[in-house]
Each structure stands twice: as structure tokens, then as C-alpha cells.
Design brief:
The protein is about 50% helix and about 15% strand. By secondary structure, the chain is of the alpha+beta class. The strands form 3 sheets. Strands 1-4-5-8 form a 4-stranded mixed sheet, with helices on one face. It has a 4-stranded antiparallel sheet with strand order 2-3-7-6, with no helix packed on it. It has a two-stranded antiparallel sheet with strand order 9-10. The longest helix is centred in the middle third of the chain and has 37 residues.
Amino acid sequence: MYDLRPKRPWETEEVVMFRDAVRRFLETEAVPCDEHWRKQKFVDRDFWHQAGALGMLCPSMPEEYGGSGGSFALEAVISEELSYVSMTSFMQNVHGGIVAPYLAHYGTDAQKQRWLPKMCSGEFIGAIAMTEPGCGSDLQAIRTTARREGDHYVINGSKTFISNGYTADLVIVAAKTDPSQGAKGMTLIVIETAELAGFQRGRNLDKIGMHGNDTAELFFDEVRVPVANRLGAEEGLGFVQMMQQLPQERLAIAVGAQAMMERAIEITIAYVHERKAFKKSLIEFQNTRFKLAECLTTARITRTFIDDCVARHMRGELSTVDASMAKLWCTEKQCEVIDECLQLHGGYGFMAEYPIARMHADARVSRIAGGASEIMKEIVARSFT
């Protein structure tokens, strides 16, 4: 049988051991709980603590702040293993793969000491609030404001589609500190949500997929936050900071999309060997074999590209353009391959209890989140125009 999960060229012995530990943990502690999480639309706090104890929440954070001091390879492993068990409820990729790096790159030592250990342990769940009701991929159009009053910022506005927003203890908020300056007037400000006057969570949004992942609306009404919570030495650095961090976010999405594509092929190969039609196994039909051959070829070629991107990112050589290509290609191919696999399941592929049906619904947002496919195409196009 063709190996859909070959050893990665960027995997060291340490990374392989970490993968084994993460895989066992997810299979024993996460998979049995996923149905419960999907029904309640969020992951239980106890699981976050368990993941923190395993070192799974912020493995690439420095050891002095509670992390493992590892490379992006550990973050990539988590993205892959979550996809291999079809786990879209647990948003570690946002918590440890996006929020924590913002703190690590732009936070002061005092900020890192204050927040990162709690994120590493699971005491704090992290979220980042960029998207607004009238602003999706166009981050320059953000309307949430933060006006300076002495030693505080006063935040007003709203955010939507915020992953981990319903349970987050710590949120990085993108706000305009000088609305007249456009992108140059944007600043990132960290809030702690507990008993924060003026802060309110809206609905835990009802989505067509990823039902176990809490995705919320957030509202800010004269929310006062100390200036000491600002990320960056001065105001107006937020847009640049987001542009610097988005490539890793997009690469992480691509990594997860690639692994889910591989998992969809695995379960479909197993299904067509077992399922019979016209007194023959589905695998005996040429159409089935050819469709799976096409899916497998797509996955293998994409695996080569994504592994190269991960390796280059670990060396600090991955460009914004290539990260955009990775997200664009992997998420588009993920949806195409999963759709083909669902078709081979016939009517059962449309039944919610079948993993392929859930994958189909869960995967769709990957072409939107972290920058829509159309934005990725624009970024790539700008490189040659």
C-alpha cells in the first residue's frame, strides 16, 4: 500500500517522538470527546489543561516562558495530526500557532512573562480579533478604534468570526489608534477578558462545519486597557506586524489542509475496498481506481511542495508570495480531493456520521480563513506585475 504519510524531510528524531506523543494523545483524549464538543460548540477547559501538560499548546515558545523551545516543525506536526484524526474543534493553531508568536515577536519581556506561561499551560486560551462585520480580508478597513486617555486605551467597536472567541481569556485586538492614517494608524492591543468592563461576547456562531470550534462575535464598548498592553514600542505598528505574521498562519493552514487531503484519501481507499456494487467491490471499477489515482497524485505532488515550504520557513527563507501559494494551492486541492472522495462514498458520503461528510463541511472555510483564495492570487500576481 502506498504510504500517504512518509517521513518528512524536516523531521528530526525529536520531532518524530513528538508526533508519536501527539498522535497517541489525540486518539485517546480528543477523538472520544469530539462528538460532545461538536454538540456544545466548544472544547472543554480540562482538555486545554491536558494539552498544556503534554507541551502541545505552545511548543515553539522559548523554555523560559513555559514552552518547549522547539521549531515550527512542532507546530506543523500538531496541524497535521489534528487533520489526520479529523479534529477541527481544537484551535491550537490559533492559540499556539498565531497568538503566542505575536507575543513572542513583539511583546516586552514583562508581557511575555505575564502571558506566555499561562498560554503554555492552558490557563489562558488565546484568540486574535482582526475580522469585523464589514471587513474580512481587507484588514486596512478595520473600524474598531482605541483612543488614548492617559495611561489607558479606550476601545470601541466589534469583531466577528473570532476562533476561540467564546472561551478566550486573552485576545489580541487590532484597532485604529489614529483612524486618519489608514494602515499606518493600526495598533495591536492585548486584553484579558476576565471581568473586563465594556467587553461582551456575542453569539457562539452557528457554522456549516467545524461545529466543535467556538467562533464568536466580540463587542467593545468603552473598554479601558492599560497602554502597557500594547504590542510594539509605539503606536501604528499593527498592520506591519500582521503582515509579518500572516505567512506563518497561512503556511499552518496549508499544512493542515494537506494532511486532511491525505486522510480523506486513506479512508476512501478503505471504503471502496469494503463497499460493493453490482456484486463487485468499488475498487474493482476502473473509474474508482482512476479517480483515486488522480487524488493520490495530487496529494503527493502537494506534499513535496508543502514540505519544501516548511523547511524554508524553518530556515527563515519562506517568502510571503510562496506562503500565499501554499495556502492557495493546498486549500483549493484539499476541497477538490475531498469532494472526489465524498463522491466515491455515494449516498453515505452525504451522511453526517461519516468522516468524509464532516471533512467536506469542515474543509470549506480553509479557502476563506487566513485570507481568501482571491487575496492569495492577488498577492502572487503582484510579484510579477
